[in-house]
Design a protein that fits this description.
The protein has a seven-stranded mixed β-sheet with strand order 15-16-17-14-13-19-20, with helices on both faces. Strands 10-9-8-11-12-22 form a six-stranded mixed β-sheet, with helices on both faces. It has 17 helices and 23 strands. The longest helix has 19 residues. It has two domains: about 280 residues, Aldehyde Dehydrogenase, Chain A, domain 1, CATH 3.40.605; about 180 residues, Aldehyde Dehydrogenase, Chain A, domain 2 (3-Layer(aba) Sandwich). Helices cover about 40% and strands about 20% of the residues. By secondary structure, the protein is an alpha/beta fold. It binds nicotinamide-adenine-dinucleotide (NAD). The site of nicotinamide-adenine-dinucleotide (NAD) has 27 residues, from α9.
Length: about 500
Amino acid sequence: MTDTTTLERTTPSATTIVDHWVGGRPWQGESDRTGEVYNPALGTVQREVRFATAEDTAHAISVAAEAAASWRNVSIAKRQQIMFAFREIVNARKDELARILTAEHGKVLSDALGEIARGLEVVEFACGLGHLTKGAYSENASSGIDVYTLRQPLGVVGIISPFNFPAMVPMWFFSVALAAGNAVVLKPSEKDPSAANWMAAALTEAGLPDGVFNVVHGDKVAVDTLLGHPDVAAISFVGSTPIARYVYETGTRNGKRVQALGGAKNHMLVLPDADLDLAADAAVNAGFGSAGERCMAISVVLAVDTVADELVEKIAERMGRLRTGDGTRGCDMGPLITGAHRDKVASYVDIAAGDGAEVVVDGRGIEVDGDPNGFWVGPTLLDNVPTSSAAYRDEIFGPVLSVVRVTGYEEGLGLINASDFGNGTAIFTNDGGAARRFQHEVNVGMIGINVPIPVPVAYHSFGGWKASLFGDAKAYGPHGFEFFTAEKAVTSRWLDPSHGGLNLGFPQHS
Ligand code: NAD
């Protein structure tokens, strides 16, 4: 059923300007502003992306609003069929999408495929959304009166996504939003915009009516228009904490439903009874996968003193086996997203060293299997990082793993709970009682027990606590469905001869 011409048109070539996608096709809009899209492994600009004006964004919203009016009346069965078809298209052509991710984000191809697989899990969840749309029904709540609930789509929803998962994070939101009957305007990261257009074309080919899914590229101008426009009912945002806070406060002030997922600083507590080889593998995989540019990356290892030396040695030994380089060459770890971000990440190594940390493995200036002009920082290990250092407190979002030595469980738990962030955490132990206590006492939204990146499966929901999530709805799963729908409670009575008569009192049950 797949007509591949549209997809091919959205697979970028070296000379492409990435257009918006509005009304089922590429759209240029009116703006003459553009941004540069780099290939981070080469350090060169490979294409440009249009930056929408407020009017461009408002146009996309009006197209979505018109499409939403009929999309909400399309049957659940038909909506699910379209999501199934989208799933089949992405699955069949995932190598093509993965190459786009690697070219613009830099993550290695195997990791790009992993991102797509985790996004597709949510699409698969959305294919079964009919189950969640079933409301509650109370027969005879009062004599002859039935009460039932139903959930309806909101209309137009805005999705604003970060650079680090250009396919998965949009899929977390749009698949549930669309299956629930909403129309979408997606504003992806301007740093790696092409995946959004590729997915938009795939949705069109899957049979989604024109205008139900739109992509507007750009920056704060587009975001602010989404946040202020009266026809946008809800906003799903993922990005850094300061912008998440801004989006939440602005959107809710404008009367919108907002879920804004922010940054992270994820700690992994390793107790002395843990399997240290398993813990070292996990710290390296979760610390350096995707060059540490994951909101669920482990960035701090809390090592109990008695095993800390051995653990640091095991981590450093494993890091020596990693190959950093171009994501298309079978390396383990790719570049950072921009030159500015590379410099910021490297500066934190200086800060930590200046604050007294020991640089055990230094990734600055390493030799890579790739172009020397790429945005490289190799895997870096810091030991004895003082908790007063900005390198400990701030989200670095790069391949820098900090080891903080603690006296035991209590001190480790105290540090995790004192963090501004509460996205993910992990405990490594063979003591079930300690693990159980940890899950009860830690103030974090997603917890791994001997699992370093505890991203919940699609039928649970994803989200952190504290400065890692503003709003009370997590992403996807049951929370996602509730976020993208509004509940109605209906109280109904069908006339029978016993009804009638005047009574001005407040309705009471009989
Ligand atoms: P970012 O905050 O810079 O950008 C996110 C989005 O906001 C982008 O679409 C961007 O164009 C837009 N934006 C940027 N500046 C803006 C401004 N001043 N006003 C309005 N909009 C603006 O984040 P990023 O660098 O793209 O992504 C990395 C961050 O995202 C990290 O902090 C990471 O932890 C976080 N993240 C969190 C999760 C999560 O689930 N909690 C998941 C992925 C990424």
